[in-house]
């Protein structure tokens, strides 16, 4: 088993998260043309306390492929902007109708629905501006832009949310996995791909990361469903029990709690095995995989 360069994912995240927070803060300076209230709404959600799993995935992927995390930082920030925009929009009354996110009132509860929609729109476009402007060389920026656009688009993130909103494509395991491969897994894979691109990874390195990301992304969603059943609302910073209350299909609802946990453990085992050929440089990714399981313990 690969050993993380720190004793746990929490230690690793603590060592690198301040650089992510600093970069996000710098990108929040919008310039004179942005209305102050819109700028405040953007900062409110983007800079809200969070684990920053997705930007850390970008940085750890770059490291695993022999690259520098500083070269991948613009891509890491762009991914967090896409993720934050999706949360703002998903929380709206027309979507999931949530009033708590990251331990604070959701954006539309603070600023109203109209401004929340616009803050999400701004974050979506900022992400691609940053990739196009700050990733070097330009040909890598082009590839990164295409990767993130596909992951955030109608066949992936948005399409998965549309099926989730409609109750899923079908009421079986294949349909449930299809929703979450697009809604959650696609962005996880994009994080890994962005990091690998900035590091100049070869095809074999990417194949390992892709296998890892596919397994880890599904395991993450299973544990998220388990937390909605068994988690503590104060610790999670969001409502629990909401999926069952809406009649949404979840992994525990379909498979039961014990089988869901078993499948998550099996997927994390496969994810860690995929990293073995990458050596100690992939230690951060292995620690993250183990952390996914620890979320539900």
Task: List strands and helices in order, with pairings.
Blueprint: H1 9-27, H2 36-46, H3 53-64, H4 69-90, E1 100-101, E2 104-105, H5 107-111, H6 113-134, H7 138-151, H8 157-165, H9 173-198, H10 203-230, H11 233-236, H12 242-245, H13 251-255, H14 257-275, H15 283-294
Antiparallel strand pairs: 1-2
Helix pairs in contact: 1-4, 2-6, 3-4, 3-9, 3-15, 4-6, 4-9, 6-7, 7-9, 8-9, 9-10, 10-14, 14-15
Structure keywords:
single chain; 297 residues; mainly alpha; Farnesyl Diphosphate Synthase; two-stranded antiparallel ribbon
Could you please describe the fold and organization of this structure?
By secondary structure, this protein is an all-alpha fold. It has one domain (9-294): Orthogonal Bundle (Farnesyl Diphosphate Synthase). Helices cover 71% and strands 1% of the residues. The chain contains 15 helices and two strands. The chain has a two-stranded antiparallel ribbon with strand order 1-2. A hairpin with a 2-residue loop joins strand 1 and strand 2 (104-105). Helix 1 packs across helix 4 (69-90), helix 2 packs across helix 6 and helix 3 (53-64) runs antiparallel to helix 4. The radius of gyration is 18 Å and the shape is globular. The chain starts with 8 loop residues before the first helix and ends with a helix. Mean pLDDT is 90; it is low at 1-6.
Query: What's the rounded overall pLDDT mean?
Result: 90
Helical run tally: 15
Overall CATH class: Mainly Alpha
The N- to C-terminal Cα distance equals 21 Å
Q: Assess the beta-strand content as a share of residues.
A: under 5%
Give the biggest beta sheet.
2 strands, antiparallel
- The CATH homologous superfamily is named Farnesyl Diphosphate Synthase
As laid out across the biggest beta sheet, the strand order is 1-2
Oligomerization state: single chain
* DSSP strand count: 2
Q: Mind telling me the C-alpha Rg?
A: 18 Å
Shape: globular
Order of helices and strands: HHHHEEHHHHHHHHHHH
What is the CATH architecture annotation? Answer: Orthogonal Bundle
């Amino acid at each position: 088993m690969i050993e993380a360069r720190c004793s746990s994912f929490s230690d690793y995240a603590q060592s690198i998260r301040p650089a992510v927070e600093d970069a996000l803060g710098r990108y929040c300076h919008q310039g004179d043309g942005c209305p102050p209230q819109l700028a405040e709404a953007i900062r409110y959600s983007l800079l809200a306390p969070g684990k920053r799993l997705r930007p850390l995935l970008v940085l750890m992927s770059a490291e695993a492929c022999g690259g520098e995390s500083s070269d991948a930082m613009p891509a890491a920030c762009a991914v967090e902007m896409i993720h934050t925009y999706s949360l703002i929009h998903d929380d709206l009354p027309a979507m999931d109708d949530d009033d708590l996110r990251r331990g604070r009132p959701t954006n539309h509860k603070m600023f109203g629905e109209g401004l929340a929609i616009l803050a999400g729109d701004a974050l979506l476009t900022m992400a691609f501006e940053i990739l196009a402007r700050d990733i070097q060389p330009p040909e890598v920026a082009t590839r990164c832009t295409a990767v993130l656009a596909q992951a955030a688009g109608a066949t992936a993130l948005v399409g998965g949310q549309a099926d989730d909103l409609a109750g899923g494509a079908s009421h079986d395991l294949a349909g449930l996995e299809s929703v979450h491969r697009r809604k959650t897994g696609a962005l996880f894979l994009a994080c890994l791909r962005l990091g690998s691109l900035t590091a100049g990874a070869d095809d074999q390195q990417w194949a390992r990361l892709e296998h890892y990301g596919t397994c880890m992304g599904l395991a993450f969603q299973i544990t998220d469903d388990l937390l909605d059943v068994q988690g503590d609302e104060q610790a999670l910073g969001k409502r629990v029990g909401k999926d069952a209350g809406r009649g949404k299909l979840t992994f525990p609802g379909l498979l039961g709690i014990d089988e869901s946990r078993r499948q998550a453990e099996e997927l994390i085992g496969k994810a860690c095995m995929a990293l073995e050929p990458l050596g100690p440089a992939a230690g951060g990714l292995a620690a993250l995989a183990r952390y996914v399981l620890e979320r539900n313990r």
